[in-house]
Amino acid sequence: MDSPTRDCPREDDVLEAIARDRLAGVEDHLASCAICADLAAVARALRDDHAAACREAQPPSAAIVWWRATIRARAEAARTVSQPITILQGVAAACGIGLACGTATLVWPSLRAFAAGVDLVARLDARRDDLAAVSTLAAHYSLPLLLAVAACLVIAPFAVYLALNDE
Fold first, then answer.
1. Domain segments of the chain as ranges
2. CA dihedral (127, 129, 132, 136) positive or negative
3. What's the confidence (pLDDT) of residue 126?
4. Terminus-to-terminus CA distance in the chain, angstroms?
5. Helices and strands (H and E) in the chain: how many
């Protein structure tokens, strides 16, 4: 039994004639050979589809292709440049979290001291009258003392200047 797909020795000639669109030399053979006729039908359909696709295709202009390539290159460069910054931001965030945890560890014991301070304020509130008398006494004598310290702070640099001046 013969296989239905036998090879014809003129298949290459038929394909070349279809590619060059010159079927005049092989028309007689196509009429007599079913294999080559099928080959020609398929090849013509493929050629016609290719031609239609080429007519319908609207490739962008060279300027648009160049512009898109430039934009893509800039975006890639920006992405490449920002990678170290992103890594450093992650490291900085991790350091901040570590610093916050370390500070919380150090501050936690001082909360007891804060509670003692609150207790001290409560005891001082009970002795409010005694503190009022002491603060009145301090306010009465603090103004002359403050003026004396201020005078020393102003006069001392001038005295040092005069002492160290060579003239």
1. 11-56, 62-108, 111-167
2. negative
3. 64
4. 132
5. 6, 0
Burial class (CB in 10 A: 0-12, 13-18, 19+), 108: exposed
pLDDT surpassing 60 at residue 56: yes
Q: How confident is the model at residue 1 (pLDDT cuts 50, 70, 90)?
A: very low
Tokens representing 142?
């603090």
Computed from CA positions of residues 139, 143, 149, 154, in that sequence, does the dihedral angle turn out positive or negative? positive
Give the pLDDT band (50/70/90) at residue 166: low
Helix (H) or strand (E) holding 117: helix 110-126
Query: 61-74 b/e with 16+ CB inside 10 Å = b?
Result: eeeeeeeeeeeeee
Model-level pTM greater than 0.70?
Answer: no
Q: How many CB atoms lie within 10 A of CB 146?
A: 10
CA distances from 69 to 59, 63, 74 (A): 15, 10, 9
So what's the pLDDT on residue 162?
77
Show Cβ contacts of residue 54 under 8 Å, excluding neighbours closer than 6 positions: none
Residue 68 pLDDT exceeds 90:
yes
Residue 129 three-state SS: helix
